[in-house]
Amino acid sequence: MRIALFVTCLADTLFPEAAKATVGLLERLGHEVVFPEDQTCCGQMHVNTGYPDEALRLVRRHVRVFAPYDVVVAPSGSCVGSVRHQHAAVARRAGDERLAAQAEDAGRRTYELSEFLVDVLGVTDVGAYYPHRVTYHPTCHSLRMLRVGERPLRLLRAVRGLELVELPQAEQCCGFGGTFAVKNADTSTAMLADKMRNVLATRADVCTAGDASCLMHIGGGLSRLRTGVRTVHLAEILASTERSETVGERQRLGVRP
Amino acid sequence: MTRTFLGMPATAPRGVGHLRGEEPFPAAARRALVDAQLRRNLRHATTTIRGKSGAVIGEVPDWQELRAAARAIKTDTMARLPELLEQLEAAVTAAGGTVHWAADAVEANRIVTDLVGAAGADRVMKVKSMATQEIGLNEALEAAGIEPVETDLAELIVQLGDDRPSHILVPAIHRNRAEIREIFLRAMPGVDPTLTDEPAVLAAAARRHLRETFLSTRVAVSGANFAVAETGTLAVVESEGNGRMCLTLPETLITVMGIEKVVPTWRDLEVFLQLLPRASTGERMNPYTSMWTGVTPGDGPQAFHLVLLDNGRSAVLADEVGRQALHCIRCSACLNVCPVYERAGGHAYGSVYPGPIGAVLSPQLTGVADNASLPYASSLCGACYDACPVMIDIPSILVHLRGQAPHPRAEATAMAAAAYTMDHPALYAAAQRAARLSRLAGPRGRGLPPPLSGWTASRDLPEPPPQTFREWWAQR
C-alpha cells in the first residue's frame, strides 16, 4: 500500500525519531511510504488558541497537500483528531463549503498509527522486540476524539520482551493541552504532578503514548525531577527489533538537563 | 406579549450577581492550587462521585439513547423557545399562578423583592437555586431589609460562612467538617455550644435550625429544574427534603427560573428524570421530586409567582455554536470529571457556574470580554463531553469562544507570523533551523523568556535533534 506520512510539525521539528520509526515500521511491514514535502502544520495550535482565521490557510494547505493520497498516516492522535474533527468546522466558519467537504474527505482517509495498523492493515503483532518495562498513557485526543481504545495496548502486548504495566488513572489528562500548558502553567503542572505520581507508581522504565506532544510534557516533568523514567513514542517501540536494540541504533527521546 | 427587535440581545449587566470573577482564572487557580485541604477535598469528593455515577450509569442499557433524546429535546426547545415560554406563561396563568418576565438580574431582584414586600414578609426561606445565586438575590433581599435563609445544608454552610459556592451540586465541597462546626458555632442562632464535628451531629443542628425556619416563614423562593410548557408544571428535584418543605408550607411561593429550563411536554420529563440523578449524585432516582401547577385551593401555597429570567440567555441563544450551553441541566457531571476543576476548585472560575460548563456558560452570559480567561481554563481533554448527560460538546464551544476572546497583542502577532511561515514550506524549514540554532546557543532547557517561562518553570524542554525529519528524509 502507498502511504502518505503526515509527520506533524512537532515530530518533524523536535521528535524526528518518532516519525522515522513510523516510516521504518510501515516499510518493514511491506508498504511504500511517501512524504509530501509541502506539508507543514495542521493548524491545531491556531484553532485551539483562538485563531481560526489564521488557521484557515493551514487547513487549506493541509487539504491540498494530502488530496492526491488514498491513505494518510500520522504518529499522533491529536493531529489526526484536528484533521478529522476541526478542519471542516474551520472551513465552514469561513463560509467555504467546498473546502469543508474536501476536509471531511481528507479526514476519512487520515489515520492515527495504531488505528491504521489494527483496523486497516489488520496486524497487532508487528514483529517488534523491546525488552523494557513499559506503561502506556492514553492521550486524551486518541482516547476521546478518535476512540482508539485498546488498539495501542493490543500492539504493545504483542511486542516481544516488553513488560506492560497498567497506568493507574490512565484516562486522566496529563495537563498538556497545547497552549494550556503555558497559559495555565500552574494548573497544567498540578495535573502533570499527578500523572507523574501514577507513572512512577508503575515502576516502569518507559512511559509511552501515541502523541509526541503529551510525551514532551510528561517527559519534561520526569526529566526535571531526574526520575530516570524515559518517554518513548509508541512508533519507536513498534519499530524496535532485536537488531536495533542490540546494535544500539535506537535514538532516545532525550531531554536537556 | 409583543416585542420589538432592537438588535443583538443584551448580556448580563455588570455590578449585580455573581458571573464575573475579580481576577483571571490562572491567577485565581494559582492560589487555589497551594491549598492542600481544598485539593484533598476535591480529589476525594470528585473521585467518589465519579465512581458512584459510573456504576449507576452502567446499569442503564439505553444510556446513550437517553442522552441523544435529551439533546434532541433541548435542541427542539431552543429552536422555538419564545413560543414555548408563551405557552408556559398561559398554562401557569390558567392554573392560578402569575408570570413575571425579567430581562436581567436587576429586574429579577426587583420583582422578587417587591413580591416579598407585598406579602408583608421580612424573611424568606430558599430552596437551593443556581439562578438566584447567579443574580445575587440574597444580597438584593438583604439590602431591602429582608432576611434570606438557605435551607439546603451545603448552601446554609456557605451562607453562614459568608462564603461563595464552589460546586453546582455540592456548594460547600471546599469545606471539611471541622470548618463546618466552626461556622455553625459562630453563625447559627441558638446552636448548642457543645457541638461536635460528627456529620450526624452537624446535620441534626442544621435540622433543628431549619425546622424552626420552615414552620415560621411565610414566603419561599425557589429555582426550578424543569417547567413543562404544555401543563404549566414546575419541577424541583432534591435530596434533603428541604425543598419539599419550602414548596409546600409557605403561603407564597416565588420561583426564579432561567428561560432555558422549559421543556415542551410532560412526557419529556421521563428522559431528564432518568438522566439527572444518575449523572449528578450517582443515584438511580433523586429522593424528592416536587411538582406543582399553579395553586390548589386549600393545599400548599395560595400565591405562586414564576419569574422568567433572561440575564444574557437570549444572547447565548443567538450564537449557533454556543447555544448548546443552554441545554445544561445543572447536574455537575462535567465538574466531577474535569481534571482542571478537580485541582483548581470552583472559586477560581469567579462565577457561580464553575467547571467546564461554567467556562462556556459564564463568558457567553456576560460577553466573552468580561470572562476572557475562562474559555482557556481547559486542556480540551474532552472528559466533560463524554460525561454530559445531555451531550453538550463543551470542548467545541470552548474552542469557539477562544476565537471570540480578545488576544494579547504579542501573541496575536506571533500567531499570525507562525501561520504565514507555516504556509510557506521553505520559510518553515528555515525557521526550524533557526529555532535549533537559537536553542543550541541559548539557555539549555530552562529559563526561557515569558510566556515560555510557564513551560520551563516546571518542565525541561526536549533536546533539539541534530536534524529535522524533513532534513533526514531529503538525505535518505
Automatic annotation (TrEMBL), chain A:
Record-linked InterPro entries: Cys_rich_dom
Cellular component terms (Gene Ontology): cytosol
Pfam families given in the database record: CCG
Superkingdom, natural source: Bacteria
All residue ranges annotated as the Cysteine-rich domain in the record: 3-82, 134-218
Gene Ontology molecular function: any one: oxidoreductase activity
PANTHER family xrefs: LACTATE UTILIZATION PROTEIN A (PTHR30296:SF0), UNCHARACTERIZED PROTEIN YKGE (PTHR30296)
Listed name of the protein: L-lactate dehydrogenase complex protein LldE
Source organism: Micromonospora chaiyaphumensis
TrEMBL record, chain B:
Domain 4Fe-4S ferredoxin-type: 325-391
Sequence ranges assigned to domain LUD in this UniProt record: 85-295
GO function term, MF aspect, one: 4 iron, 4 sulfur cluster binding
InterPro entries for the chain: 4Fe4S_Fe-S-bd, 4Fe4S_Fe_S_CS, FTHF_cligase-like_sf, Helical_ferredxn, LUD_dom, LutB/LldF, LutB_C, NagB/RpiA_transferase-like
UniProt region (Disordered), positions on chain: 441-467
The UniProt record lists the keyword Metal-binding: yes
Protein name: L-lactate dehydrogenase complex protein LldF
The organism of origin for this protein: Micromonospora chaiyaphumensis
